[in-house]
Every structure is written in structure tokens, then in C-alpha cells.
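Researcher: Go.
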Amino acid sequence: MKIKKLNIIITLGFVAIIGILIAQLMWTRQAYNLEDKKFNQKVNIALMEVAEKLSGGKTSYTENPVQNIANDYYVVNINNEFHPVVLEYYLKTEFTRFQINTDYVYALYNCHSDKMVYGKYMTSHQESPSNKVINFPKHKNLIYYFSIRFPDKTTYLISSLRFWYLLTFALIIILLVYVYSIYTIIQQKKFSELQRDFINNMTHEFKTPLSSILLASEALNKQDLVQDNSKLQTYTSIIINQSHKLNNHIEKILNIAKNDAAGLSLKPQKILLLPFIQEIADSIQHKNKDLSIEIDIENSTSLMADEFHFTNIIYNLLDNSIKYCETKPVIKISANKDSKGLYLKFKDNGMGIPAKNIPHIFEKFYRVHTKRSEEVNGFGLGLFYVKKVVQQHHWKISVENNEDKGITTTLFFPFSNNHV
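Model: Structure:
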């Protein structure tokens, strides 16, 4: 993905999450205001009921007896004397009925002494708090009235909206995780580009002297002096073979780096499986005289695949079976179908793979640490490349140990993708 597109996606994602967070904060604020309004309405109705009961239901009010002096402070006008015990009973009853479950303090005004007398701190806890001082200013225009204050109103409203606050907190966490993830992605992309550039530069620097070594050694091998001397011919053959092997490794690394940057370019075409695999097997058998390959595939079996990459898959699988075999290599290649698709299996008599290592063998640069693997040259890129080609074709690949010896690698080509 290009840097410009990535920056656009990051910016849009960041703006979207910020927008959602702002909307959530606005909804939370609105929910708080609505809850505050609902609380005030319930308190007003409850206090009106208390005022009516204290007046014996006989007094009709021309105006609302309940005055909301402040956000948490109410004054209720009663045109009659009343007893504090009766007031407390009615307050408990009405607040319970209207589900007003928060602490409150009520106070009475004594018109004879012209003093405000504190009533009681009503709480749901066992003990009344002694460290709270509640202010009840005297109301000049009223004679018989009581005041009530809700000191924990804000806490009560917030606790009733805890879902909204938890959701807002979760969105903030998501935003922070998103920012951290984006930062990590950008850092990883930089590291990946540095790694790819290093690999490209390194392999290109290797190819120039390697090409010179190949040309010189091939020219040397054709000299009469070398042709007449078996030892010299052996030495030059070793140089040529090892140079070709090193060149193949370099090409593999270059292909992996190129594919990581731009992805594989596939050109699927119909391939007859038997002659295709037979040709690759014959080519490998020419280089490995002790190799035995048995092929059990029907003549009519075919599939859709990129010829170049599919050839590399077959070659890599056969090459691994040969390299990791401690005796005479025997490979059995078979194909069978079921209702889901075609299965192409490669069974060898190699040294096998420890069960704990099988899930990791397709990872880049991963190699199973055994005595044999230390003797075999490689970078751990062959099966990574195979897995990448398989995924690009929408196939599947699996590896399992045989009951006797070696492993069986299975390529699955589903009918649903029109690969068979």
C-alpha cells in the first residue's frame, strides 16, 4: 500500500473515532441533563404530595408550594404548623414511592423563635455522617415551611448514568489503542522497508561478483588442462555447482522481497498435472541418481495455476524431501478427488518434523534445528514462498508426519474456486 493511501486511511479512521467520541460525550451530557430534569420532576412531585398530606388535603395552593432555590436545594411552603416526625414519615414514604434513593437533609423553620432548626440527615447507610455541614439559609417570605437538600445529588446522577460513562471510557481506550496501533504499523512498515531495501541491496551486490565467478569457472572448466585433470575438473564442478546454488538462493531472496512489496503477479492457465509433474521429476532425477519418484496421477487430471509459481512449488517440495532424507530418497506423488476438490500429496521417507515445529515451518526464515538441517544450506524461505503462492491461488497446504517415516505434504485445490 502506498504511503499516501495509508496516510489517508489513518487520517479518516482517526477523524471517525474522534467524531464518535465527541458525539458520545455530547450524548452523555444530554443524558445527564435529562436525568437531572427527571430527578427534579420526581422530587417536585414527591414534595407536593408531602405538602398536601401535611396540610391535611384541605388547603388548595394558588401557586406551586415547592420552590427549587438551587440545583440541590428545595423549599416547601406549608400554610400550617406540622410536626417533624410526621414530616420525616411522609418524606420517607414519598421518596421511596418515587424511587429517590439518595441521601438528603431536611430542616424546619420555627416561626416562634425565628430560627432555622435542623431536622435530620437521612441516609441509606446505618450511621449518619457527622462531618457534613449543610447550609439552610432562612427564607424571609415564608412562615411555615421546611427545606430539603440533596448533598450527593451529582454523585447519584453520575452513578445512574454509569453505563454512559463506561461507554465513553471504552471509546477513549479504543482511541488510544487505535493511535498506538497506527504508530506501531507505521514503525513496522518503516522497519519492513529498511529490511527489504537492505536485502535488495545486499543480494544485488552479491550477484555481480557471483556472475563473474560463474563465468570464470565455466570458462576454466572448458580448458584442456582441466579436462585432462580429474581433480581440477572436480574442483571446478564444485565451484560451478555451489555458485549455481548460491545464485538460486539469491534469486529466491529477491523474489520474496519483491513479492512482499508488490504481491505475486499470477497468470493462471490450464495445466495437465501428470506430464507437468513428470517433467519436473525427470529434471530432478537427472541431478539425483539415487532418487526414486513414484507418480500416481490420472492422465485427465488438470487444474488452473500459474505455471511458473506452480513449478517452483513442486520443485521446492521435492527438493526438501531430498535434502532432509538420510537414506535413499523415495517420493510418492499421488492425486485424488472428493466432493470438495483435488488433493495432491507428496509422501517421502525423510527424517520427519517434530510435531511442535510443524505449525511454524511456513514462517519466513524459520528452520527446524536438527543435525541434518545444520548440514543443509538454506535460509528458511522455501516453504514460506510455497505458502505465499498457495494463499495467492486460494489453495490450502498441510503437512503431517507419516506413521512409519518421513512426512506427507498435501496441496488442496477446491472445486468452488474453479481451480480444478
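Model: Residues 293 and 331 are 5 Å apart (CA to CA).
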